[in-house]
């Protein structure tokens, strides 16, 4: 399956989510590959830190200049990180994707951006590509006015589906960026880990879990 994690707005947490999701899939003993199409190359840096520290499982990075029309020839799970700084790559990747995962930060501007994004990609989506959204970087208690309003707003955006799972703004985000470990590898019982694992259940509801921490 090809999962593209994309959004028009920067700062939505795409690279961190892609990194954590890839590691989780690898722990489930699936073949997983990452493709970093974001010019900032945050995802590439995260993988480099993980490799330097010798953490396992290791994650394979596909060459960023690979022909995107060949994406569906790749075996296993492919996770693509791409943003508005590479619109050509974004449209090309979405045209090959089985799923488009859109993290949305609570706030009216981000909701408007997501609505515009869904409109822009309509003609580029592969016929069997499912678009799903979820709130990311919410307040830790999840009860703020911004979070409530954003959850209601994205539930009405079509043709994408809003997931009930959400990720809060927690310390684990910074630690993931600096240590080369997924949140559930660092603190399995932390609330951030539980939130992330809840997101994986929403994305892979029928997958048998082969590894716990």
Task: Pick out its properties.
single chain, 213 residues, alpha/beta, Rossmann fold
- Report the major sheet: 7 strands, parallel
Q: How many domain units?
A: 1
The percent of residues in helical segments reads: 25-40%
Structural class call reads alpha/beta
CATH C-level category? Alpha Beta
| Beta strand count | 7
Number of helices: 8
The ordered H/E elements are EHEHEEHEHEHEHHH
In short:
This protein has 213 residues and is an alpha/beta fold. 39% of the residues lie in helices and 20% in strands.
Provide an overview of this structure.
The chain starts with a strand and ends in a 10-residue tail after the last helix. The protein has 213 residues and is an alpha/beta fold. Helix 1 crosses helix 2 (42-53), helix 2 (42-53) packs across helix 6 (171-179) and helix 4 runs parallel beside helix 5. It has eight helices and seven strands, in the order E-H-E-H-E-E-H-E-H-E-H-E-H-H-H. Strands 3-2-4-1-5-6-7 form a seven-stranded parallel sheet, sandwiched between helices. The longest helix is centred in the N-terminal third of the chain and has 14 residues, at 14-27. It has a single domain (2-203), classed as Rossmann fold, CATH 3.40.50.
